[in-house]
Design brief:
alpha+beta, globular, 2 helices, N-terminal domain of TfIIb
Length: 70
């Protein structure tokens, strides 16, 4: 019997504090981030990276970011 992916479920169900979104910037470019609610990521278009949000906490490490498709 397989277990459900608890990580994926918690990523979608935990909202991010809007005050936190107001102060965060891209750690690479120091530019603005766009909150992608559907993908549950913070996107830096300038850096071409999407930073994951896990349990309501943005993971702002470049090594953890997903590269955006061209």
């Amino acid at each position: 019997m397989t277990q459900p992916d608890d990580t994926a479920a918690s990523n979608r169900s935990t909202p991010v504090d809007p005050r936190l979104l107001d102060i965060l910037v891209c750690p690479v470019t120091k530019g603005p981030l766009h909150y992608d609610r559907e993908a549950n990521e913070l996107v830096s278009r300038k850096a071409g990276l999407a930073f994951p949000i896990r349990d309501g906490i943005p993971i702002m490490l470049p090594d953890e970011a997903r590269a955006l498709a061209d």
